[in-house]
C-alpha cells in the first residue's frame, strides 16, 4: 500500500485523507485555499476540526460568534507559531479570506460537544528537540490545553541534513501511560520549494517497510509503525503533524534497536 499522497494546489477545499478512503480510521486531513475576499463555509459534521493557518489571514465565525482574524504568516518558514481555529462537531464554520490563504484542515470523529476556540500565537509553545544531527524545532498548537479532546497538532522545522523524530518511534499499542494508539499524518513543505526529504515508515515484523522521497505539498499517513524523517542537504524541511486517538497527547515508544541514541543525546546536552 502507498501511504504517500500529493496535493495539487486548488481553490476551495481539497480532501486528502478521508476515513474509509485511506489507510486511516480515525483521522482526516485536507487543504483550503482562498483568494482575498472569498468566503467558504465548512461543516464539521461528526468531527472535532482544527483549521491551521499555514499562511495568509482569514476571519472565522461559528455558532453566531465572530472570532476575528487569524493568521500572521506569509509562509510557514516566516514564523514557527501558526494561528488556528478549533471547532467541535456539528458546527458550521464561516471563513472569509483577507489575504491569499492556505489552511490545513485536521479532523477526527468525536462523541461529545465542545466549544469553538481561536488559538493565537501567544498560545503556541515551541521547543527544540534532540541534538544535531537529529535536532528540530517543534511547535504545539492543539493539545490538552485547548478545547480539543482527541486532536494533537503541531509543526516541525528541520534544518538541512538533520533528522526529525529520531530514534524512530511509534504509537500503535494501548499501553498507557507508556504508549497510546494514535494515527498520524505529516504534511511537507520545503525551502527552497524544489527541496525534498526522506520519510521512513516500518514495522518490527516487516509488514510495512517504506522509505519515501517526500516533496513540496506531499503527505504521508501513519496508520501504525515506526517513523522518522530526514531533510536533504541544502533544504529546510517543514512538516505539519497531526495525531488523533483514544488518548490525546504524545505517548510513544522508540525502536529498541536505536534507543541507545537517547543516551548519546543526554550526554551531549550535559556538555
Q: Can you walk through the features of this model?
A:
The protein is mostly beta strands. It contains one helix and 22 strands. It has a single domain, classed as Jelly Rolls. The longest helix has 10 residues. The N and C termini lie far apart (44 Å). The model has no long low-confidence stretch (mean pLDDT 96).
Q: Which helices and strands, and how do they pair?
A:
Layout lengths: L3 E3 L5 E6 L10 E7 L4 E5 L3 E16 L2 E9 L10 E4 L4 E6 L3 E9 L7 E3 L5 E5 L6 E7 L8 E8 L4 E8 L1 E4 L3 E13 L4 E7 L6 E7 L2 E5 L3 E6 L4 E10 L7 E2 L6 H10 L1
Antiparallel strand pairs: 1-19, 2-3, 3-9, 4-8, 5-6, 5-7, 5-8, 5-9, 7-10, 11-12, 12-13, 13-21, 14-20, 14-22, 15-16, 16-19, 16-21, 17-18, 17-20
Query: What is the CATH superfamily classification?
Result: Jelly Rolls
Which CATH architecture would you pick? Sandwich
Q: Residue share in helices? A: under 10%
Distance between the termini: 44 Å
Count of discrete alpha- or pi-helical segments spanning 4 or more residues: 1
